[in-house]
Amino acid sequence: MSINCNKNCCENKLNSPYIKKILEILGPVILGSKPAEILNISGEMNLKKNKLNEIESFFDKCSKINYKIINTYDGGIRVLFINKKSMSRVFTNKKCINFLKFLGYPSDYDMETYINVLINKLHSPNFPNEIGIFLGYPLKDVLGFMGYGKNELYTTRVWKIYGDPSISYEVCNSFFKDRAIMKEMINNNSISELRSVI
After folding, report:
1. What is the DSSP string of 66-128?
2. How many CB atoms are closer than 10 A to CB 9?
């Protein structure tokens, strides 16, 4: 993906190093290969507030992704970034929906409802490992990690890969590719140019 830029395009005009880091991490979500990403907001409370203010300031009018701020049971803060177009592609896989129903998600599938169920689970002490489905990991790997699959652990890349690694590698490589594209966009475009495509 490229952005038409002016004569100053090679100068990085992104003011916030934190937003620059977040944008690079979110490259696959923004560009569509990944349906969601969850980030922990670290630091003492004032630093967390500053980070959240930066996120809200940059992403509030975002056309490609939404975000949800999640306060955890232990006082932590997470932000779930969601590309709803990519998420809807995940849920064209009936096996994903059926597995989530098996875990207690509503029997009538609705993407917004399923996201809200996940968010409610993220408030609790028991981390919902099915989040891997929402993050775009292959179902076989999520099942294997949760102890439901019949596949053996093959390797660990960004996540634990079970059984035949070919589809997992393909998904992972698409995430890496979009992250590299976003890094190049960050280095070559102003904040306003980035906002225009995000």
Report:
1. EEEEEE-TTS-EEEEEE-HHHHHHHTT-HHHHHHHHHTT--SS--HHHHHHHHHHHHTSSS--
2. 15
Instruction: State both tokens at 104.
Output: 């207690």
Say how far apart CA 118 and CA 35 lie, in whole Å.
14
Torsion on CA atoms 67, 72, 76, 77, rounded to nearest 10: 10
- Which pLDDT tens digits describe the chain residue by residue (198 residues)? 333 333 333 333 346 788 889 999 999 999 999 999 999 998 898 999 999 999 998 888 788 899 999 998 888 899 999 999 999 999 999 999 999 999 999 999 999 999 999 999 999 899 999 999 999 999 999 999 999 978 999 999 999 999 999 999 999 999 999 999 999 988 887 767 777 767
Distance in angstroms (rounded) separating the CA atoms of residues 2 and 78? 30
Buried b (16+ CB within 10 A) or exposed e, 19-35: bbebbbbbbbbbbbbbb
The CB density around residue 47, as the number of other CB atoms within 10 Å, is 12
* 66 DSSP β-pair partners: 82
